[in-house]
Amino acid sequence: MIAFKEVNKIYPNGVRGLRDVDFEMRRGEFVALIGLSGAGKSTLLRTVNGITEPTSGEVEVDGRVVGGSREDLRRLRGRIGMIFQGFNLVGPSTVQHNVIVGRLSHKHPVLGTLGLFNRRDYQLVERALDRVGLANKLHQRADQLSGGQQQRVAIARALVQEPSVLLADEPVASLDPVSTDRVMSDLRRVRDELELTVLVSLHSVPLARRWATRIIGMRDGMVVFDGTPQEATDTRLGEIYGDAYRAMNEAQQLPESRGSDGKGPAEGGEDCDVEECRTP
Ligand SMILES: Nc1ncnc2c1ncn2[C@@H]1O[C@H](COP(=O)(O)OP(=O)(O)OP(=O)(O)O)[C@@H](O)[C@H]1O
């Protein structure tokens, strides 16, 4: 469970990142945060794992207030997986190495840097890669994978933390529509299978409608919409965001070319192994 209690963030330069943010997320919810650039989505996400400290108010994760000593924060971050737009992988290292790094949050700092991982850690890596359909890439270099595959490696890295919460900051912003679909569906599936609470910032309203169980819309640091995907109609969001709504709605269209079953990735897409499919 995540609870925001009257959370405000004013940056040192006077910019108000968050204004009176107050809502709760139940375990297992998949919430999409939408809003234009600068609306406060990243700021909000970063208050959940304590990277950004609220100026006033509190954020709670699983009943504990985010903050406290360095050790408190380390323990909290161990239960929160984070996925970034740029994947944050070590390109020349193997997929296995990139994923096992997620176990460091459960290690004593010194043991972790010595690379002392045990059998269970390696088993967790294999299971996590299996969940995102990349078990066969274990020994491949991360930078030889497509962008979408790299993001799924990043999801696996978050999963080996055995988290209760997954945060994803624009995880599909740099991906093509087919890879986007695969990454979103992996996020949604691991949430279903592991009962994770997932909070994802997205630029695209169609994507939010398609994958989230709840949509929270932000503007100028405030929550201006909180409802189901069905309630997030064009009319309603158009009223809230005005002319800017069109830009948000068109940020990323859903895949047009899909597999023959209408669900899987189209040929030559996400799991394509040929050179042209890889990100530069
Ligand atoms: N470290 C910082 N110092 C000062 N201002 C900041 C800082 N980080 C963010 N801001 C400001 O806070 C506001 C919210 O920014 P934030 O990055 O949370 O928005 P966002 O909705 O995630 O935007 P984007 O979609 O572009 O990532 C913006 O006005 C931004 O310029």
UniProtKB/TrEMBL annotation:
GO terms for cellular component: membrane. Residues 2-245 form the ABC transporter domain. Residues 249-280 are annotated as: Disordered. This is Phosphonate transport system ATP-binding protein. Pfam families: ABC_tran. GO terms for molecular function: ABC-type phosphonate transporter activity; ATP binding; ATP hydrolysis activity. PANTHER family: AMINO ACID IMPORT ATP-BINDING PROTEIN (PTHR43166), PHOSPHONATES IMPORT ATP-BINDING PROTEIN PHNC (PTHR43166:SF6). SUPFAM superfamilies: P-loop containing nucleoside triphosphate hydrolases. Keywords: ATP-binding, Cell membrane, Membrane, Nucleotide-binding, Translocase, Transport. NCBIfam families: ABC_phnC. It comes from Propioniferax innocua.
